[in-house]
Amino acid sequence: MQSPEASTAATPTQIHLALANFADEVVGTLARLFAYVGTLALFAILALAGLGQLPDLRDDESAEKPGWAVADRSHPAFALSRLDSSEKTASYTILRHPEGGRRDVMRWTGEADKPPAELEIYREGSEFDVTRPATAGLAIQMGLGAATALEQAGLIDTKFGPVALFRPTGTADGTPSCLGYLKRNEEPALQISGFSCQGDTMPARRAAIACTLNRLTQLASGNEPKLAELFAHAELKRRACDPAGSGDWLLGAANAQLRGAL
Fold first, then answer.
1. Helix ranges restricted to H, the chain
2. Which residues cross the membrane (predicted)?
3. How far is CA 244 from each of CA 108, 148, 210, rounded to the nearest angstrom?
């Protein structure tokens, strides 16, 4: 049996041991807490750094996909034969796409610098989207809003074959309005489009478009034999221009549907 003196002598030692164990536990807990907080701070810094780089990454991605640009060094590949020597020359702009597409755009300037007519020859490249509607962008090309709906306004016969005509939806019959037009060719991949506000009547405007397309000639094929063949065959079907309009050019002013390639 332990004496009272021995029991009293052991008490300070036990207290010191208990305090030492408690101090070790506190130090360990604080160390783990600091490590936890430090880890959270590190993750927060990495997250903020990543978010700060997102705009730069988006800018890099958009910079890697350039779009259409004016090709000042390219030479015109098409022209319109003149009706007379006094006819004004149209402005000619060439746009190129890094994925191979080329647009040759001719514009005629009228009163208040508002173009009364435009003609575009689009040689498609890899950038061409086959799922995009054929008439997408035609309203903008006509100087209308992007959301402007277009309706079919018949077909005209040209040396390139039937060409579809379009006008703003809701235009009353007999009311003169600018007409858009579109002709698609699969082989070679080519699209001819534009608009015309020339003429005081709808037949006259149809005739103006047909005359424009019949006068379209090729200056250079750019090592594209199929394109040269297309224009050579079209030239055999060329018609004379009749400013008053010609009934046999009009295949149907109220066609309900257009089928097949335009």
1. 4-63, 138-141, 202-214, 225-235
2. 33-52
3. 20, 29, 12
**Residue that has been written with the tokens 């004379």 in this structure:** 240
* pLDDT per position as a tens digit, 45-78: 777 666 665 445 455 444 556 789 999 999 999 9
Cβ 95 vs Cβ 68: under 8 Å: yes
Triad 166, 124, 70: Cα angle to 5°: 95
Apex 253 CA angle, 248 and 258, nearest 5:
105
> Contacts for 69-74 with beta carbons within 8 Å, 24 or more apart?
69/95, 69/96, 69/97, 70/94, 70/95, 71/95, 71/96, 71/102, 74/102
In sequence order, which residues have a C-beta less than 8 Å from that of residue 166 and are 6 or more positions away? 135, 138, 150, 151, 152, 153, 179, 180, 181, 182
SS3 state at 169:
coil
d(CA 87, CA 208): 14
Q: Is 85 left (phi over 0), alpha (psi -120 to 50) or beta?
A: alpha
pLDDT of residue 232: 93
Residue 247 pLDDT class (50, 70, 90 cuts): very low
Query: Which amino acid appears at position 24 of this protein?
Result: D
Q: What is the DSSP letter of 86?
A: T
Angle at 215 between CA 108 and CA 117, to 5 degrees: 20
